[in-house]
Amino acid sequence: MHVSIDPSWQTHLAKEFAAPYFSALTTFVKEEYRTATIYPHPKNIFRAFDLCPFEKVKVVILGQDPYHGEHQANGLAFAVEDTTRIPPSLQNIFKEIQTDLGGEAQPPKDGNLTHWAKQGVLLLNATLTVRAHAPGSHQAHGWEKFTDAVVRALSEEREHLVFMLWGKYAKAKGAHIDRRKHLVLEAAHPSPFSAHTGFFGCKHFSRANEYLVAHNELPIRWLEPVAAHSQKV
User: What predicted TM-score, i.e. pTM, was given to this entire model?
Assistant: First the structure.
């Protein structure tokens, strides 16, 4: 089965796209889009992969499923359309980044996170589609098996990646990661219900950059320089 996705991922995930479960998943998702309101827009289902080719991945941040409200999901985990109010979990992520990194920088003015993806941050939801106003509605239809395969392929075929696993759902994906080859950072979910139980103060963003630099990779620019921020205002 041909899937419209960046060619590098097409190569590494060819077995998944040819598997019976993925055919059944495709049938289910197509019918859902035909009969209900589904997010994100179909063209954005594989946007995380298109913005971050397999060989360019440096950091993997795992989410659960897309936002289920109108004008929110854009195909990147935790991200929203740039005209949409930044959701509480992402606000907490930005708070932790600024506390962790500080310095002469400001948090992003919007939540689209495209600038992270283009630097090599794979913002991967475990489930890539969802019904409007029905969180978790596309779980257990095959997406989890597919994204398990994504994590496994990165673990087996790449070296020195950083995996950020926030909350129980994301931590379960850790079973597919070779921790001898990669840095796995775990913390509570950044949701307002749990951020104060271990997400705030986790320092994942500085730790990720330290690890990348130690392995001869450029660090991720998590925050915007003040000058760039001022130009936007």
Answer: 0.93
